[in-house]
Specification:
The protein has about 150 residues and is of the alpha+beta class. About 30% of the residues lie in helices and about 25% in strands. The chain has three helices and six strands; from the N terminus they run E-E-E-H-H-H-E-E-E. Strands 1-2-3 form a three-stranded antiparallel sheet, with no helix packed on it. The protein has a three-stranded antiparallel sheet with strand order 4-5-6, with no helix packed on it. A hairpin with a 2-residue loop joins strand 4 and strand 5. Helix 1 crosses helix 2, helix 1 packs across helix 3 and helix 2 packs across helix 3. The protein starts with 11 loop residues before the first strand and ends in an 8-residue tail after the last strand.
Length: about 150
């Protein structure tokens, strides 16, 4: 932990552990105590971090309605309303999307064009595919005539 979540002072000292075994830091600037979890975006909420992030992930990834997600969580013994889930999505959705975007693979800059012939309704056509170095198809183009030049 580099700075106090309350006053942003960098004058922190270790001050033992809390009941969950996390290191507690004391701020010399404001006199408050905090853990590394205190700076989390979801700190201070009634529900645990895992429940909040799971509900937001279900909503964004699966496109399920908030009331259905509340029903899924209720099956697991977690009583939360659909309106609360919508508030979580509004509050944490962008931050979660940014965190996921950082771990995404970078787009490739090297790719090849693959040309083949296919027969469609008795007529031959040219099929061009853009393929990256791992063999993933990036784009396809079907043409009745050969259009690529530069051979």
């Amino acid at each position: 932990m580099s700075s106090c979540p309350r006053c942003s002072s960098s004058d922190l000292t270790r001050d033992g552990h809390d009941a969950h075994g996390r290191v507690v830091y004391a701020c010399a600037g404001c006199g408050r105590h905090a853990t590394a979890e205190s700076v989390s975006l979801v700190s201070g909420h009634r529900f645990p971090r895992d429940v909040i992030l799971l509900a937001v992930r279900y909503y964004l990834q699966l496109g399920a309605a908030a009331e259905r997600i509340a029903g899924v969580l209720a099956d697991r013994g977690i009583d939360v309303s659909g309106r609360t889930i919508l508030r979580w999505v509004q509050k944490f959705g962008l931050a979660l999307a940014d965190a996921v975007r950082q771990h995404r693979k970078r787009p490739v800059t090297t790719w090849l064009v693959d040309e083949t012939y296919v027969k469609i309704r008795g007529k031959w056509h040219y099929l061009y595919r853009g393929v990256d170095l791992e063999g993933q198809v990036l784009d396809c183009w079907l043409s009745a005539t050969q259009r690529l030049t530069g051979r």
